[in-house]
Amino acid sequence: MNTYDVIVVGAGPAGLLAAGRAAELGAKVLILEKMRLPGRKLLITGKGRCNITNDKPISEFIPHVFPNGRFLRTAFSSFFSEDIIQLLQSFGVESILERGGRYFPVSNKSKDVLDALLRWNEKFGVVIQTGMRVEKLLTENNEIHGLTANGQPFYAPKIILATGGKSYPATGSNGDGYELAKRVGHTIETPIPALVPIETRGNLAQSLQGLNLRNVKAVVWVNGKKLGEDFGEMLFTHFGLSGPIILTLSRIVVAELRKENEVKITVDLKPALDEQKLDARLLRDLNEHGKKKIGNIFRFWLPASMVPVFIDYLEMDPEKECHQVAAKERKIIRHLLKNLPFDVSHHRSFKEAIITAGGVVTSEISPKTMESKLIKGLYFAGEMIDLDAETGGYNLQIAYSTGWLAGNSCLEKKDDR
Fold first, then answer.
1. pTM, two decimal places
2. Which CATH architecture is the domain 6-194+355-409 placed in?
């Protein structure tokens, strides 16, 4: 008979942490994964490099998690960034700390991280069956006792759902877990794409396609009111805007587009200079190069590939000499350098979203154990839960911590790692 102490549904980072920890404590553990290979989504994280985690302390980490980061205090206290770094190191994966407090494997290969987690699971006897789609949870008197997968029954008094969200569905995360949870009575906050690129109207972004900007500030405006901003790196694409600060702000953009509000994004190309200092800089450069063409002077202020697009947008004559630029024209230039505008038309789909916002509501999950408050013996971990975070290793840490806590809570602790 297919009987186990713990069954984990999903072989992503949350599932592997849950299974590994439960097995480490002596449980007989089975992972059921519907894809042909485990950890497919983990392999593409960090553009294939795997941003393992972030070095911020818990108090600074929590504000980067939405909509209720405080829910994770126990999970983070149980297993946090230093713990995953240590676990990976014990299986041969060294980490390096990079800009923004982000940890990556020294090898720059996400496969090394996945292989380490798989070796850890193998060491403690975890059985992984791939190509197994879970169809139904078996409950009786609000208590879990098993599930069916590919028409076969599997029995266990503890089941951990770690199926992921809906982002990158080609990797297997297509929302199956939400349906399983919903059928046994759980409330699902509507899943929406998070950390997702933004589509814009017109051809301004498209004409700058491929240009990557650093140290700029993007601001989100909704019905003319400023709702958010972020500083850092962004990218222009054939459809609009992407890059770290755009992905971070996309949480606001997606939510407001769903309300059918008017959304705009402005980019401050000179955030280190206020209006007065920028005007002084422009005036100085124009005066010093009075007989030079304005088209050439723009290279002092912008990346070369941006100059012709910027001048075209201003409808300026690039042949005009600098001393001919009037104060009114200088004001327009200054304003555009501080407020390059983009009208948002839409956001990209789950196929391009790094993470999913929404999922099983946290009010129905115990923060101390990750166990369902509705079904005894049912636990949740990772992206299935209504928690998402900014880029920078935060989302993977949520997966590790909730997975670890769920696996740890399934049985009495015998030995520490």
1. 0.91
2. 3-Layer(bba) Sandwich (3.50)
